[in-house]
Design brief:
- 27% of the residues lie in helices and 26% in strands.
- The strands form 4 sheets. A 5-stranded mixed sheet has the order 1-2-3-5-4, covered by helices on one side. A 5-stranded mixed sheet has the order 6-10-11-8-7.
- By secondary structure, it is α+β, with helices and mostly antiparallel strands.
- It has 2 domains: 104 residues, Translation Initiation Factor IF3; 137 residues, Methyltransferase, Cobalt-precorrin-4 Transmethylase, Domain 2.
- Strand 13 and strand 14 form a beta hairpin.
- The radius of gyration is 22 Å and the shape is flat.
Length: 278
């Protein structure tokens, strides 16, 4: 379990949100770097509440910490979250790789810290193999989508649907897309004629087709991690593969294709570019 060294006042969980995840509101907070000489007791308390909220969510399957940015002209991509907050989070997870646990997102004057449910990814990510007809210990949810791809035309199937899910996850709160598992969480695997290398290449090629629109000078890219697992039958014969993809929330807009929107220019109707449409 994740533990904190000291206790603070009780935090309130917000149950009246549109988020499918647990959301904890901590109110206004000053983010970014603050001189130790200038940080007030109230600011120290708020930062302590932030860490406490993260600790609670890590121990409860993940969720969202919501806060209002108190300092004006704060911009996450430029000012970061603050070294002291970063260090407190590293101490919580006992790791320098905070990206495995947390995703940050600024929405104008509000800030969201997504605390991930690593149990889900680890249940597939740490395994080297799965058994055919094995039932996974998690289900199809808002942020988890199972797809049965036992068809011989699975590569074509992936090309047809993957962009929709990748862009949808990137534009919201991230998620997991798992090919080779049916709606009842049962491992099915891919068709026996499909090669592992072909699966990996198809996924990489499709994600490379995503169109991204940046609202600022920071040219970030969509982050998606894939994991392809061997599936075996009772006799330990290879029974295909399960392809699991984890997508992170993206800071700007991700498009599956150019918007289907047109504008009249002179005597022609031209299709709007992503930039013009946005």
């Amino acid at each position: 379990m994740f533990r904190m060294a000291r206790k603070e006042g009780q935090l309130l969980v917000n149950l009246k949100t549109n988020y499918p995840d647990v959301a904890v509101d901590i109110g206004k907070i000053v983010l970014g770097e603050i001189s130790k000489k200038k940080i007030s007791n109230n600011q120290k308390r708020k930062r302590s509440e932030l860490v406490k909220a993260v600790c609670a969510l890590l121990n409860s399957g993940g969720g969202v910490v919501r806060m209002e940015i108190e300092n004006k002209n704060y911009y996450f991509q430029e000012h970061s979250i603050g070294l002291d907050i970063e260090q407190s989070l590293r101490v919580l997870i006992d790791s320098a790789e905070t990206g495995e646990y947390f995703t940050w997102m600024q929405q104008q004057s509000h800030f969201l810290l997504f605390v991930k449910n690593l149990k889900l990814w680890r249940s597939t990510g740490e395994k080297q193999k799965l058994m055919a007809r094995e039932v996974l210990d998690f289900t199809d949810t808002t942020h988890v989508e199972f797809k049965n791809f036992s068809t011989r035309d699975v590569l074509k199937y992936i090309r047809e649907i993957l962009l929709n899910y990748v862009s949808a996850f990137a534009n919201t709160q991230g998620g997991y897309l798992i090919f080779g598992v049916d709606d009842s969480s049962k491992v099915v695997g891919s068709h026996s004629e499909v090669e592992k290398e072909a699966l990996a290449k198809t996924v990489a090629d499709v994600i490379g087709l995503l169109r991204v629109y940046h609202f600022c000078r920071f040219q970030a890219t969509v982050q998606f991690k894939s994991n392809i697992l061997n599936v075996y039958d009772k006799e330990e014969h290879l029974h295909g593969y399960v392809c699991a993809l984890r997508g992170k929330p993206f800071c700007w807009a991700v498009f599956h294709d150019i918007p289907r929107s047109w504008i009249v220019k002179g005597n022609t109707a031209d299709r709007l570019s992503i930039k013009k449409w946005t």
